[in-house]
Amino acid sequence: MKNQLLFIGKREDGSVIELNLYWLALENFSDSVTELPFVEQYILQKYILQLAIEEKNLLEKKRTGQLNRMHEYLVETFQQQYNEVYDRLLQYQSDNLGNKNSALINQMNAQLIDIEEQKKKRIHTLNKQRTIILQPPKKIAQFELIPNGSSYRVIASDYYNLVVAHEKANGRKLITMYDNLGLVDFYSERFNGEERFIILTEKPDFFISESHLEDLNNIIDKTYIYVIHGDNFEEINLTNNF
Q: What's this model's pTM, rounded to 2 decimal places?
């Protein structure tokens, strides 16, 4: 069983994106809240169901590999037990003058039958674990957010190609994008293992909250703010500026 909390959002252009859980911690919300009539967003239902199916497929793929290895181990183990008992059976049968080993022979035959039955039960139980049942995603809450201009963050996925090109041009080949509005937006790494965490903004006068800086504490010396200027970035190292 696996439970996972997901945040998704529909943008003004109708596209749907996934948000990092950290977006709630950004604390750039006004105090005013207006309750609106509920409108079901079917495009969000479709998107979240697709995410759930993809997660189920990943779990099935991972579990199938594990179960295949367990299946091979069980077959090999039971076969080894069977062969050992069968070898003893042959010995007793070859030295059974006057039926002196009849009881042992019957015992070995019973053990062989028991080994086969145990093998079938264990493999049946194992194969039942291959099926993963997907429960329908349950919506916890729905909000309509109106930007108030106080956040310096941007949607990282909008700049994926730009960031990848910039990092590669500067010798950083291993590049990962995190879910939108996470603690950081991107991670990159040089061939020598030098790490870099990236936060994107369009505001030259950006301000990072103390809570965000505290959360970045363990990686702050490796964290850079990329201020977006068209197709270029101004790189600002957090350690030198905060």
A: 0.69
